[in-house]
Amino acid sequence: MEKVNVAVLGATGAVGRTMIRILQERRFPMRSLKLLASPHSAGKVIDLGAKTGIVEEFSPAALKDVDLVFGAVDNDLVEEYAPLIQRSGALFVDNSSAFRLEEDVPLVIPEINARDIRWHHGIVANPNCATILAMMALSPILKLTRVKRMIVSTYQAVSGAGMKGMDELERQIRDPSAAPEVFPFPIAFNVIPQIGDFDENGISAEEWKMQNEGRRILHDEALQVSCTCVRVPVYRCHSESIYVETETEVSLDAIRQAAEECPGLVLNEAPYPTPKECTDSDAVVIGRLRRDEACPHGLHLWCCCDQLRKGAATNAVQIGEWAWQNGLLKKGV
Ligand SMILES: NC(=O)c1ccc[n+]([C@@H]2O[C@H](COP(=O)([O-])OP(=O)(O)OC[C@H]3O[C@@H](n4cnc5c(N)ncnc54)[C@H](OP(=O)(O)O)[C@@H]3O)[C@@H](O)[C@H]2O)c1
Question: Mean pLDDT, to the nearest integer, of 245-252?
Fold first, then answer.
């Protein structure tokens, strides 16, 4: 099969840098790799292992001959650039939340709904990192029964807010009196129960994404998701405490067995996963699997995942791989 001309938009950011590493690690069939960012980064040199790459400013001309664009920039830029990418004919795999709930844009976790990529119209959206972690963690249960309801508390790393989030934690660890600029309160030695702005009902932007994305991925309009999203002073790797109510009763042993057949998922009950040990790995690791004593169909579990990898970059690269393998690149308008 023909190799692909790839561009990473946001190549200097936390997700973009991880994406470049993953494209190399997975030996993505690239003919060429363009590194695109803001005018401020044009000319910067990025280490590509055996060679280096030069960052270019994003422009329609920079998209000439590109087949596949991996997006790792904020929503406002995506809204401006997406029509230009679509017009170029390249497939746009986007990490922002700009198109995640658009009806004609597939929202994809390849291990769960790769086949949705088939009906893309030039854009495929990567789900929110906390959504990817939760859906992957539920995959062994979903092999056995329907999940009716899920209640999640997240423990999200500062890299979820990009390079600037990591810089702020570093700064405040060195100087705890350093004023917050990225997060609403100091993040060092603290936890903050707010990720994004609150709506009129007191639901944060991150909670809103998580509440709505799972239904599209699972094609289950009746799935009920409630969550509280919390920022914690961890550099990398999100964790979640998840409570689910299933349609039928399933045994813990059946779930353990099903977990062995779920790609990308690892069960760790010796004794449980922590974000530190899951950093820089693609696996979603679950543990602390247990019954809820008060509800016969209730289950609890704990899970961790490097959200820069499987929660963003790896998931996007997997989408690109599936599209390439199935001849689904170049379908822009
Ligand atoms: N961080 C995560 O864990 C995570 C997980 C899932 C999804 N996401 C989403 O992924 C996207 C990127 O997040 P991030 O965490 O990587 O952010 P980040 O570290 O702040 O990186 C932002 C990137 O956007 C580029 N950029 C800024 N202005 C630009 C412009 N005018 N034209 C072209 N590029 C421009 C920056 O380039 P310069 O360096 O030149 O400014 C940088 O490469 C966001 O939509 C985010 O919501 C993030």
Answer: 97
